Q: What sequence folds into this?
């Protein structure tokens, strides 16, 4: 726990003018946003986000999934569901920048032996393995495979808010012995309050102490706490922060990158390119009205009830998207 | 500081299933929302908010200002700028409910000798004096006047984020000697982070220790932290919480009541009536497009820069409401 105390000290009052160079931001706009439009972004939009991340000094950008085409049909899903090598290179070429390229590999939904190429053949830098707790055995194999192939790896432990405390402890013990660079706290349902995030971050930090593994946070905005919870984790000692431009992401969306950049003091981060991207790319997209994300009452209700947002998303896409009371009554009844 | 420690203990892990009966919510939807539409709400809307507050178990509702008609013309301002006795009674009659009726009296903008009637002649329960730090001498007179007339009084110390630490200490010392029931931390610009709110709450609590005065919080949502900061103050020991339905309020708006009710465990609070009111009253209002509130990039920029939102509000009402980059450049230049 020394590390935690040390960081708490470093972040205490006197150091509002300093910054922690260890803090790294991953932009997951296209990956998490892809859950709204079946990963069907146009190249121009993806390229704009890429260039924005480069200009803003972001550390890594996640483009999408490496989904198994035997499970997910390419005719039903856009290119960013699969992140084939030539898809990525359409946008980043050989990526002659400091921005690291990341993809997400879902446990049990990725043909990783086949679809994750040796690092020497790929422009990808980071393979982010996403796993529910019951999939950890598969995730361990995937982490090893990607690490052996030469990638940096991280792991997103999803839906932590549904895991019993004892099982979480065991999971962390196992993950701390893998070659991952970072383990992410994932508030999949946007149900956590800051105090809970504080406790979780302390627990995660303790589990990786001395292992050279960082702790990250991936928050959702169902209760309008994605940014607040990201700050909370950061203050306690999480050094890997997920964020998205304009908060884009499934349902209530994610921690808005523009808010995070306003808080972080590292001069390498630039807010202006992000504002420009929002103005030029996101506002027109919003006006089209084809993609919805951000804080809305139905997402708040699933967040408060610690439920997957899928029922709220379905309701918003249905015939009575504004029937908040009917949705609330239904959720209460089904509880 | 014992009180703070005690409350921290009470709120610690074991007590997520209990609640603090001392916590009281004031709904300021019509008062703060009135800053968007020059206090011109229709009676039906105000009545709906009133009935919602009653049904939801809210403790107090603030209807508007007691503004001086010699300074503010009734032809330019709606009825809720003045909250005349017969205006209030149009909605609440003799208020045969447990909901307390509050009005705000701005220092130097209220003819309080004349416009605040003796309590026996009024349906108002609480006079909330709002003051900038340099107006405190006037505010003290107003608090005494209202208390002498038989009202409960509270004081909102506005724009704390612009006050030097030493002056704040002196102000609190003075206010702690008045007959107010509560002193409110007001994050007028929505510029505070949770850690700062925590420190401020501790400071405010210490200043009123043993005086029988409660600490309250009035947060704005410029950095999407209104709810998070309200929770932070609550956890440290603030017992008076301001919130608005659907977060309605000037600029980025306020702490959304529906989020707060989702957190608080006191069974007297009911979420459903608030959802019903949002669905039936706020959605149609939003669709009209005449009133804008809630998190938006220009409000975020003024919040991050600890500036009054007036420049952002003006920009949103102007010819280029979506020119985020131009607004950012202008704000940086003027800093």
A:
């Amino acid at each position: 726990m020394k590390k935690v105390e040390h960081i708490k000290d470093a972040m205490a009052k006197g150091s509002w003018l300093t910054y922690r160079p260890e803090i790294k931001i991953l932009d997951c706009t296209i990956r998490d946003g892809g859950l709204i439009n079946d990963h069907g972004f146009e190249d121009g939009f993806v390229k704009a986000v890429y260039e924005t991340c480069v200009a803003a000094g972001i550390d890594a950008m996640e483009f999408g999934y490496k989904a198994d085409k035997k499970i997910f049909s390419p005719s039903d899903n856009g290119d960013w569901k699969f992140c084939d090598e030539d898809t990525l290179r359409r946008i980043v070429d050989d990526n002659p920048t400091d921005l690291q390229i990341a993809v997400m590999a879902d446990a049990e939904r990725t043909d990783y032996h086949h679809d994750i190429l040796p690092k020497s053949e790929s422009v990808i830098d980071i393979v982010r393995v996403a796993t529910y707790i019951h999939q950890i055995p598969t995730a361990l194999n995937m982490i090893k495979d990607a690490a052996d192939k030469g990638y940096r790896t991280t792991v997103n432990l999803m839906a932590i808010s549904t895991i019993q405390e004892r099982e979480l402890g065991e999971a962390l013990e196992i993950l701390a012995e893998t070659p991952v660079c970072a383990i992410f706290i994932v508030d999949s349902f946007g149900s956590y309050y800051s105090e809970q995030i504080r406790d979780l971050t302390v627990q995660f930090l303790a589990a990786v102490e001395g292992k050279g593994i960082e702790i990250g946070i991936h928050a959702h905005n169902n209760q309008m706490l994605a940014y607040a919870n990201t700050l909370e984790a950061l203050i306690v000692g999480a050094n890997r922060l997920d964020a998205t431009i304009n908060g884009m992401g499934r349902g209530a969306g994610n921690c808005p990158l523009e808010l995070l950049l306003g808080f972080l003091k590292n001069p390498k981060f630039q807010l202006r390119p992000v504002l420009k991207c929002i103005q030029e790319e996101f506002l027109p997209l919003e006006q089209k009205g084809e993609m919805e994300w951000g804080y809305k009452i139905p997402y708040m209700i699933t967040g408060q009830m610690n439920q997957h947002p899928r029922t709220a998303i379905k309701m918003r896409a249905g015939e009575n998207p504004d029937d908040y009371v009917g949705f609330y009554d239904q959720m209460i009844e089904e509880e």
